[in-house]
Design brief:
The protein is an alpha/beta fold. It contains 18 helices and 23 strands. Bound molecules: flavin-adenine dinucleotide (FAD).
């Protein structure tokens, strides 16, 4: 029953992870008015909150986009995971709540972004989250470890579920890492995120429910008179005055586009619509590569080549295994045994215990290139000698190539380190999807030039750089070594896909391209990178869009190089820092 105004101090586009965090911070002192415009709706169904229901979701809560055929993987396509609901990605994600290594963020700073290294971000990681330790009995039973000093008193709740599938299988996984010499870390959230470690979930420890942007940054504050949320509206573009100051946005009702409003911002328009939509909103507004805007017959307001380039994600290797000596029940039992599932649901409803408190995973191994292969030096040498431009999207201009070369220098240093991971292995009662953490392939996101309001054109460019393929081959071989360890052999592993018949490098490449490799782990990012203008950047270190005033970006699109971690904790930290930057400049 909100009566919306025509003008606000700030208009935030997107009520997702970053948008609601920034909205909360900008409204908390009561001085500024904020309107958040969100394409999705409030989903009040209990399933959103149930950890076990993660990644199942309601189709209405996600965009229905498909990527273009991916040249690097035999032209296969797949749906693009992107949230369309209040709370954004954190309303539908897998609830793994981890951070990258110090080196991941120091790379951002080294690219020309003072204050965005680990030292500058760590206070915001702490500010964003609160960790509640598990009960002593669970620590004794499961072996959870953590370092409480990595967390603060923030709004997002981090905790470990009070349940683990029985049978000791998880011990075998931990044992196997030790057998292969992988260090076991007490905590991964303090800047040392390589080796194997426990990862908390974004989980409320009292109700054993999802803790996400809506529960942390909207629900408790929705009665603030200066905090308005408009749902079911898509912002199509930003309107500028003659001096290129962003002064309003155009919002269209979801579905039929029939109702169109414009809202004015007195101070700033803040884009938080996620990596795909923030990009397309800019392009529709005339901010982007001129060649694309000309094709779409959109007047160029700022020729900014970086908008929609530098697209990154964590490509996924979908190995599958069966364990003939595995435990029962396990995660799959929830899918295959209706009685077990219904008992588990009743247990969660009544006691907030049992398998329904468990989302997907809460332990990972993050492995450096040197762990994955003894032949890491030739891979590093190939990166150094590669003619980078020949593997980048055709639309890269010289500034973007320069930016990529600067990134590549840092990636070479990163991958040469024995402490910086190239592969993630989530594990519980089995191995989850293994993902490539530092891709050299780059993709693009653009509007469709013949229908700029239609679905975006999303091209991950997965495996377009052959280095990523080399890394993936090494990861496949290392995974088999892991499965051959004596700890895992006790479980009787059988490789189902790609299967033991796939053994030579050529066969592995074939399998990766034809079925094994997928372009995303639901981490689309980096399309409006925070980098200097002469390196193809889109925003400066104060998150202002180059060439404009009154327009900033606060979501995952500003990341210059994707960190080796799931992204939600990083996005919350970015948003917390962004809010401080925005408040400071508008005092
Ligand atoms: C399926 C899935 C699983 C994931 N699993 C994990 C995990 O286990 N752990 C982890 O840490 N991270 C995970 N992530 C990633 C993480 O959740 C995201 O990276 C993060 O939430 C992105 O935050 P954001 O603010 O950039 O965008 P979002 O949170 O996506 O917010 C963007 C918002 O903008 C809205 N919007 C879009 N276009 C418009 C428009 N034109 N007008 C108005 N509103 C618009 C969207 O509806 C959305 O609510 C997952 C993501 C997904 C999708």
């Amino acid at each position: 029953h909100v009566c919306f105004n025509n003008t606000y101090d700030y208009i935030i586009v997107g009520g997702g992870t970053s948008g609601l965090t920034v909205a909360d911070r900008l409204t908390e002192d009561g001085k500024n008015s904020v309107l958040v415009i969100e394409f999705g709706y409030l989903n009040n169904d209990i399933s959103v909150l149930i950890p076990e229901r993660t990644l199942i979701g309601d189709a209405r809560d996600a965009f229905n986009w498909t990527c273009v055929p991916q040249a690097g993987i035999n032209n296969r396509t797949m749906p693009v995971p992107a949230a369309a609901v209040v709370g954004g990605g954190t309303a539908i994600n897998g609830m793994l709540f981890d951070r990258g290594s110090k080196e991941d963020y120091d790379m951002w700073e080294a690219l020309g972004n003072p204050g965005w290294g680990w030292a500058g971000l760590f206070p915001y990681f702490k500010k964003s989250a609160k960790f509640t330790p598990p009960l002593e009995q669970l620590v004794a039973e499961y072996g959870y470890t953590w370092d409480a000093s990595a967390y603060g008193n923030g709004s997002i709740q981090a905790s470990f579920p009070p349940y683990r599938f029985p049978g000791g299988v998880a011990e075998s996984f931990w044992q196997a890492w030790k057998e292969l010499g992988v260090p076991i870390q007490k905590e991964g959230a303090n800047g040392i995120a390589y080796g194997a470690f426990w990862v908390p979930n974004s989980l409320d420890p009292v109700n054993e429910t999802r803790s996400y942007a809506r529960t942390a940054h909207y629900d408790p504050y929705k009665d603030r008179a200066n905090y308005h949320l408009l749902t079911g509206y898509m912002v199509s573009k930003v309107i500028f005055d003659d001096q290129l100051n962003a002064n309003s946005v155009i919002a269209r009702s979801r579905g039929n586009n029939s109702t169109i409003f414009s809202f004015k911002a007195k101070r700033e328009v803040i884009l938080a619509a996620g990596s795909v939509s923030t990009t397309t909103i800019l392009q529709r507004s005339g901010i982007g590569p001129k060649e694309l805007l000309d094709q779409a017959k959109i007047k160029t307001r700022v020729n900014l080549p970086g908008v929609g380039h530098n697209f990154q994600d964590h490509a996924r290797i979908a190995f599958t295994w069966n364990f003939t000596n595995g435990p029962y029940p396990n995660q799959t039992t929830l899918l295959t045994n209706a009685t077990f599932n219904s008992e588990a649901y009743k247990e969660w409803l009544k006691f907030k215990t049992g398998p329904y408190t468990f989302s997907r995973s809460n332990s990972v191994a993050m492995l450096p290139l040197q762990t994955v292969t003894d032949d890491y030096e030739p891979i590093i040498e190939s990166i150094k000698s590669q003619d980078a431009a020949s593997y980048l999207p055709r639309t890269y201009d010289q500034t973007l190539i320069n930016g990529f070369l600067a990134q590549r220098q840092l990636i070479i240093k990163y991958l040469s380190s024995e402490k910086c991971p190239i592969a993630e292995y989530p594990f519980t009662t089995t191995l989850g999807s293994i993902t490539l953490q530092k891709p050299l392939s780059r993709g693009t996101v653009t509007i469709n030039p013949v229908d700029s309001l239609g679905d975006p054109i999303i091209d991950w460019g997965v495996l377009t750089n052959p280095i990523d393929l080399e890394a993936a081959i090494s990861i496949v071989k290392f995974t088999r070594k892991y499965m051959n360890s004596s700890a895992i052999q006790q479980l009787g592993p059988i490789e189902l896909s790609p299967g033991p018949a796939v053994s030579t490098d050529d066969e592995i490449v074939n399998a990766l391209k034809s079925s094994l490799m997928w372009p995303t782990n639901a981490h689309p990012s980096c399309t409006c990178a925070m980098m200097p203008l002469d390196k193809g950047g889109v925003v400066d270190p104060q998150l202002r869009v180059y060439g404009t005033t009154g327009l900033s970006i606060v979501d995952a699109s500003i990341i210059p190089i994707i960190p080796a971690t799931h992204l939600s904790a990083t996005v919350y930290a970015i948003a917390e820092k962004a809010a401080d930057i925005i408040k400071a400049r508008n005092k």
